Structures are given as C-alpha cells and as structure tokens.
Amino acid sequence: MTPSARVAAAIGILDDIARADSPADAILRDWARRNRFAGSKDRRAIRDLVYRDLRDGARYRWLAAQQGGDQGSARTRMILACESDAPGSAAGLFDGSGYGPAALDEAEMALAAGLSGLGDETVPGWARANCPEDLFALFEAQWGPETEAELAALNERAPVDIRVNTLRATRADVQAGLAAAGYETEPTPISPAGLRGGENARLTDLPPFRDGLADPQDESSQIVAGLCGARSGMTMIDLCAGAGGKALALAADMENNGQIIACDISAARLSRMEPRSMRLGVQIVRLLPLPGGVPPANMAGAADAVLVDAPCTGSGTWRRSPEQRWRTTPETITDYAKVQADILEGAAALVKPGGRLVYAVCSLFDAEGRDIASAFADAHPEYGRVPVSGLVEGLEDGPDGTMLLTPRRHGTDGMFAAVFERVG
C-alpha cells in the first residue's frame, strides 16, 4: 500500500469507530480481515495512524475549530496531523491518486496553511490532555492542578497484568514459567496474586496460560476482588459479572469451596466464563442470567458478600480503549449514574446481616463513584462503611475510606470502590 492509501484506510477506520460501539481494536481487526491485501507493515502503519488520532485527537480537534473546520471529521484531523509532521506534506498525501484520499479543496488547503500561526503555547489544557472539553471541566473540579498529569497517564499504553491462579500455582512458579517461555514479569505492587509484563504478548500461547495457572486481569480488578473478603465456604454474589474475571478471582480466594452466583443481564457475556472456568479448574461458580436485571426473591439475605462492579463510562480504561473518551458526554455519565444507583439499591437486600457489600466502577468520575457511594450510605443506615486500608495491604484510604486507583498514582486502570458492612 502507498502512504496515501494507508492514510485513506485510517480515515475510513476512524469513521467506523465514530459510528460504532465496538472497541477500536475489534474494528481494526475486522478491517484487516476484509482487506487481506494489506501486509503486516501496512496494518501496523494504519494502526499507528488510527491510534495517533485516538491518543492525540483533541489537539487536532482544537486546531480545526480554531480555523472554522469540522473537528468531528476524521479527514480534517488527519490533514492537520500530516501537516503537523511536515508542512506541505498533506497536499502530497491528499492528491486523489490511486487508493489515496481525495485531493484537498481550497478550504482544506487554507486549513493546512493556517497551522503555522497556531503555536503550541496557545493550546488549551483539555486539548493538551486529549480529553473532551466538557469532560476536562469535570476532572478539573475533582483534581485541580493535578488534572493534566492524571489525564496524561490515561494517554499512555497500559501494561499487561496477569492474575496467578492460586488454586494451582504460586506467583513465583508462574513468574518462573513465563520467564522460561521468554516473557519477563515483575510482581504487582499491591495485589499478592498479580504479575506485570512490560510489553504485549500472545499470552494464550504461553504454557502457564494454557495450563490454567494464570489469567489476564488488571491489578485494579484483582484488588477489587480482594476487598470482598472471600473465604472458603462462603456464599458470594457477583451481581454484574460480565465475562467473570472477578468471580474467578473470588473462587481462588475461596479455595474452590463454597458458592459464587455470577449474574448479568447478558447471558452471552456470562457464557464466556465457562471455558475460562474449565481452564482454571474453578468448580463453584453458578451462572445466573438476569434479563430484567432483578435478582429473584429467594436471593434476599443469602450472601456473605455481594460485589457490584457496575456498568459505567469506563473512563478508567482509557489507556486500553482511548476511543471511549470520544463516546462519553456529561449526559452519558448522568445516565449511568441512575443505573448504578438502582443496581446498588437492589444489591442491598441480598446481603445477610454482618455481610459485606462492595461497590466498584472502572470510572474516575465522582458522579459514578464517590457520589453514588455517599448517597447509598445516607439512605441506608443499616450499612456502615469499611475503610479499604484495613482490607487490602498497601491500599490507602480516600475520603470516607473509599478507594480511587489511577494510572498515574498506582499504575493500574482507574477504579473506584467503596465497601459497606450490613449491621447485624
């Protein structure tokens, strides 16, 4: 493929990402399947162009808006990105030849030429931080002068975190097995069952994964599972289990003894847990689809602990899914907050006296985390707060004993959690 054809392909993929709800990686893989002629170098170059826009697109959006251009246009942003690399290069790439993008029109030529008058010193904070302007204001209200540093960490590539399956192996054994296969790791700072790799790899091809000794899982999720206090013989409910990563971690903490009821509104998502359970040797998880989202009445007061890993905007995972920042609005956050409050309210009835309720979201917005937990505490005097520092070694309490992990401070995905105990 010519450089111009690569640019055209990247623009088309960015348009697909803007229209879809699918992850950017999935859209890139689908494009590659449909365009077998693209070689490995072509695919890598196109991926780099796409992720450059996702990880630095706010700057090009601002540059477009300053000159009256369409900041929502992937073509416009790509013109500005090319021109930023080398003045005059956009005209050579956008010349209408072969499979390249159409030639620049007069307005686009003026847009490219106008870049020379816009210095870096004029770029606002939200554009430097690659964050939509209305979301930047929300983060700034939370983090103040730390905002840009926190958001910069959300633009970095995420590490590869691994959970050791303690049902079958120790962390030292798995680390040695991975090293023997050529993949170096180091222990995660907080999770006692975690390992962290410094580069991407086909983990499923490595012996410790094939043998069920390990499972990919970010350290933040491992920590949330640890907050549940799962022990042998308990009854646990994972109310928003998804594909089951945390439920499988709970099973290891329970030494495969007891019962875990993994619930989700999507039976398809839950079904993805079955092959993972078999590979890891987990035998105590029961899958319970809840199409209406409401647990059956016979589950009331049945659980020693309930985990609510609620659906959210996923702002804490922007390192892995940078496209999500452009799919999130203040209205989206408000909509999720209503769902989160409803789910947590329903979960309150499932915990037996003396039991534990853990609320978590992979979001960094207070509206989805701390505000939900505070409203729940105010409405439920039968639940007392439990400081997270006393539950997982190495954690520090935030306000009201809650947890807020961020990539900058902890090297994990962003994650909020609050722990409550039902008064006996």
What would a concise description of this structure say?
By secondary structure, the chain is of the alpha/beta class. The protein is built from 18 helices and 12 strands.
The backbone outline, from C-alpha atoms, is globular
Residues in helices, as a percent range:
40-55%
Rg is 24 Å
What structural class should be given to the helix and strand makeup? alpha/beta
Structural descriptors:
single chain; 424 residues; alpha/beta; eight-stranded mixed sheet; four-stranded antiparallel sheet
Report on this structure:
It is a single chain. With 424 residues, this protein is an alpha/beta fold. Helix content is 42%, strand content 15%. It has 18 helices and twelve strands. It has helices at residues 3-19, 24-34, 40-66, 74-85, 89-93, 106-113, 125-128, 133-143, 147-153, 171-180, 207-210, 219-227, 245-253, 267-271, 273-280, 330-347, 370-379, 407-410; strands at 160-164, 185-187, 194-197, 214-216, 235-238, 259-264, 285-289, 303-309, 351-361, 383-385, 403-405, 415-422. The strands form two sheets. Strands 5, 6, 7, 8, 9, 10, 11 and 12 form an eight-stranded mixed β-sheet that branches. A four-stranded antiparallel β-sheet has the order 2-3-1-4. α16 links the parallel β8 (303-309) and β9 (351-361). α12 (219-227) crosses α13 (245-253). It is globular.
List the helices and strands and how they pair.
Elements: H1 3-19, H2 24-34, H3 40-66, H4 74-85, H5 89-93, H6 106-113, H7 125-128, H8 133-143, H9 147-153, E1 160-164, H10 171-180, E2 185-187, E3 194-197, H11 207-210, E4 214-216, H12 219-227, E5 235-238, H13 245-253, E6 259-264, H14 267-271, H15 273-280, E7 285-289, E8 303-309, H16 330-347, E9 351-361, H17 370-379, E10 383-385, E11 403-405, H18 407-410, E12 415-422
Parallel strand pairs: 5-6, 5-8, 6-7, 8-9
Antiparallel strand pairs: 1-3, 1-4, 2-3, 9-12, 10-12, 11-12
